[in-house]
Specification:
The complex is a heterodimer.
Chain A lengths: L2 H35 L6 H18 L4 H22 L10 H22 L1 H4 L12 E4 L2 E4 H23 L1 H11 L1 H6 L4 H26 L6 H16 L4 H21 L2 H18 L8
Antiparallel strand pairs in A: 1-2
Helix pairs in contact in A: 1-6, 1-9, 1-10, 1-11, 2-3, 2-4, 2-9, 2-10, 3-9, 6-7, 6-9, 7-9, 10-11, 10-12, 11-12
Chain B lengths: L2 H20 L4 H27 L6 H17 L5 H20 L7 H21 L1 H4 L21 H24 L1 H11 L1 H6 L4 H27 L9 H14 L5 H10 L2 H5 L5 H16 L3 H14 L14
Helix pairs in contact in B: 1-7, 2-7, 2-8, 2-10, 2-11, 2-12, 3-4, 3-5, 3-10, 4-10, 8-10, 11-12, 11-14, 11-15, 12-15
Chain lengths: 293, 326
């Protein structure tokens, strides 16, 4: 193998890993909310972008350190999720056909957020980049990869691992999975279903915010990333199986590599077509996804 | 259909036909009226699916876009008359729409909505990435207005009146359709598709028929839109447009004929009257979408009917949507 083709392979590998890790993280956030509350969060892309933009404000305009900015965004994100749950989400817990109602409500939320962004951030800049958390590069053979992106990947995979552990071993996680499987039976066994709904909405939203923060540190971005991420996360959720974190991880990684490989030959939009196609095929033939929970 | 809603439809029809002449003095208001009338035609069409069959078609604007671009292609490149290009383009769009929607129409509820969102996204991407027909993101400008008798073009008040006639025709057609056997099948499918299937209604076929008719509405509206505004781009037919029309229908009251008329009359002119505050349009309509879904699933007209029936102490009209969701 010649040096230049090795370089391409390594670059594809690293981009695929990093993008895949972030995709998986966001999709995991979407999938646990859908699996548990039946809430297909159409505004996940806007949440993702919101976190990234606020990080940009905190680090560049306020001059805060990366860690302080990230923590502040997570705290604000949790607050936002709690308020949304209190004001909007809980009103639909018992509505018939609530997933459609949720989808519509979150589409409305998407429109509000994108309106706010076009009034504010769109006027300030069209490309946003945040100073890296750590400097320096690591050499992977002949291929340089920035430590900053490696960090983003490690953190997202770490959070996914924690999420796995939470769902499998912690009482809260077990209650969450019980509600995934059967709402009534869980209630009969003494699980507070409404509390679990609240917990999973806040947890899922926080994970999406975290994905946005990591993405902001790893890549420069513009406002269109919201829509792309939203569609991608939905596609991952449907293909991987709603409610399955393992599905989100496997399919998210696959999509990350797809994006990296396609980007060598064509524009990333072509990759988008393939996600949408995969989602359509899945919806038609196996709406429960690859990893049925 | 109660007699009072028949009077309501008759009155609305007369007002719609008279408005182009009442606003003839002011070109700006005339334009706002024209855009409202196109939205009215779209809303009436979408109501058939979202109100009567109970499916939320987010690819509606995409289908309108196919018809718009096809119409421009036929009139510009092939040199057809608008009045030939419009029906052909609309039929083409409806056939493509059904072909795209065919698999999705087997699904229901959220999965149909999600599928329709995917199809809409694919169509938007296609409009951007096939510039041969669509001129990509730049869009097509200076689309000629429809030709008219004696070599003149259909412009100004006459075009507004033509749109009023189209909107009224759309309203009368959907009024008639919902009275027929097919219209009753629509409601049966919406209320309980399993029960409908068990009494011998072919649910998927009923949905496909409804979707074809709705796509025709979308297509005809798309052709008129392109010729009326004179400029189209992928943004004119993106998912936000579908969502807006859905909002007109639901805000007014889906599953009724008068509801979408009321909703469109109130909401459609707002973006034009906002002028400098254009950017607030998205925030406003997003807020309305949330409020309507949470507080007023039956819409304005639905709430009014409920009030009326409570006064008279009887059940709500059967064609009206009773539960939350689509």
């Amino acid at each position: 193998m010649s040096d230049s083709s090795l370089l391409i392979v390594l670059s594809t590998l690293s981009t695929g890993l990093i993008m895949g890790a972030i995709f998986s993280l966001v999709a995991a956030g979407v999938t646990i909310v859908y699996g548990c509350v039946w809430l297909p969060n159409a505004s996940n892309g806007q949440f993702f972008l919101l976190a990234a933009l606020v990080v940009w404000t905190f680090t560049l305009s306020f001059g805060w350190s990366s860690l302080a900015a990230s923590l502040a965004v997570i705290v604000l994100g949790v607050l936002l999720a709690v308020v949304l749950e209190l004001v909007l989400i809980r009103r639909l817990y018992n509505a018939p056909n609530r997933n459609v109602a949720y989808f519509v409500v979150t589409l409305g939320l998407t429109q509000i957020l994108s309106g706010i962004f076009s009034l504010t951030y769109a006027k300030w800049s069209d490309q946003f980049s945040v100073p890296p958390v750590i400097e320096g590069i690591t050499m992977l053979g002949p291929f340089p990869i920035s430590n900053n992106r490696l960090l983003a990947m490690v953190v997202s995979l770490g959070v996914l691992g924690l999420l796995f552990a939470l769902l499998r071993y912690h009482p809260y996680g077990r209650a969450l999975r019980a509600v995934f499987q059967n709402r009534e039976a869980a209630a009969l066994r003494g699980v507070n279903v409404r509390a679990i709904y609240r917990l999973s909405f806040v947890l899922g939203s926080t994970i999406i915010f975290l994905g946005g923060i990591l993405f902001a540190f790893a890549y420069s971005f513009d406002l269109s990333v919201a829509w792309t991420m939203s569609i991608t996360a939905f596609a991952i959720m449907i293909v991987g199986g709603p409610g399955s974190v393992l599905g989100a991880l496997v399919v998210g990684m696959t999509f990350g590599f797809t994006q990296a490989i396609v980007s060598i030959f064509a524009s990333p939009t072509v990759a988008m077509f393939s996600y949408l196609g995969a989602m359509l095929i899945m919806l038609l033939f196996q709406p429960n996804g690859l990893f049925k929970r | 259909m109660t007699s009072h809603s028949q009077y309501g439809i008759a009155a609305a029809t007369l007002v719609i036909l008279a408005l182009p002449f009442l606003l003839a003095g002011n070109r700006f208001l005339g334009f706002v009226l024209g855009m409202t009338l196109i939205s009215l035609l779209w809303a009436t069409g979408m109501n058939l699916l979202s109100g009567f069959v109970g499916l939320m078609p987010l690819m509606f604007a995409g289908i309108a876009g196919i018809a718009g671009y096809a119409m421009v292609y036929f009139t510009r490149t092939a040199g057809w008359s608008f009045w030939l290009a419009m029906p052909v383009a609309s039929l083409l769009a409806a056939i493509i729409g059904v072909a795209l929607g065919l698999p999705a129409l087997r699904l229901k509820g959220f999965y149909f909505t999600l599928c329709s969102l995917v199809i809409q996204s694919v169509l938007t991407l296609a409009f951007i990435f096939f510039p041969k027909f669509t001129n990509g993101d730049t869009g097509i400008n200076e689309i000629a207005p429809p030709d008219w008798f004696g070599g003149t073009a259909l412009t100004g008040v006459r075009f507004d009146f033509a749109l009023a006639v189209a909107a009224v025709a759309g309203i009368l057609f959907s009024t008639w359709l919902t009275q027929t056997h097919l219209g009753k099948k629509f409601v049966a499918v919406r209320e309980d598709d399993v029960l409908a299937e068990s009494i011998g209604i072919d649910v998927v076929r009923t949905r496909i028929t409804a979707f074809f008719i709705v796509s025709l509405y979308a297509g005809i509206g798309g052709c008129f839109y392109s010729a009326y505004v004179g400029f189209i781009s992928p943004r004119a037919f993106d998912v936000l447009v579908s969502l807006n029309i859905w909002l007109f229908v639901t805000f007014g009251g889906r599953g009724t004929i008068l509801g979408p008329i009321i909703g469109t009359a109130i909401l459609a002119p707002i973006p034009f009257l906002l002028q400098d505050l254009q950017a607030f349009k998205d925030i406003l309509s997003g807020t309305l979408i949330i409020l309507v879904t949470l507080l007023m699933p039956g819409g304005i007209y639905g709430a009014w009917l409920k009030l009326l029936s409570r006064k008279r102490g009887r059940e709500v009209q059967t064609t009206q949507v009773r539960e939350q969701g689509v």
